[in-house]
């Protein structure tokens, strides 16, 4: 009777995907918004912590990696 309620495993806060809310797409040139998805050690923050949806998280990781290659973001913290 309750089998379609599977994505309710974690205590959900009112988190929404930054890109969906602002109607944006992750862009490797847009380091300002990419920076909010990487932590102090320049690691990509997990989707669950930022509230990014799976679709945008995939695009986001690609954008961040692309951005690193273009030397817009750092690979590691120094
Ligand atoms: Zn989204």
- Helix/strand/pairing category: mainly alpha
What's the overall geometry?
A: globular
The share of residues in helices is 25-40%
Largest sheet: none
CATH architecture of the domain at 18-69: Irregular
The arrangement of helices and strands along the chain is HHHH
Bound molecules: zinc ion
Percent strand equals: under 5%
CATH class of the domain at 18-69 reads Few Secondary Structures
CATH fold field value of the domain at 18-69? 30s Ribosomal Protein S18
CATH superfamily grouping of the domain at 18-69: Ribosomal protein S18
Poorly predicted parts: none
Helix segment tally: 4
Number of strands: 0
């Amino acid at each position: 009777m309750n089998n379609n309620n599977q994505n309710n495993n974690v205590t959900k806060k009112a988190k929404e995907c930054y890109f969906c809310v602002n109607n944006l797409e992750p862009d490797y040139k847009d380091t300002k918004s990419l920076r909010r998805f990487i932590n102090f050690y320049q690691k990509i923050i997990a989707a669950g912590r930022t509230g990014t949806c799976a679709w945008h998280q995939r695009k986001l990781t690609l954008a961040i990696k692309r951005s690193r290659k273009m030397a817009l973001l750092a690979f590691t913290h120094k």
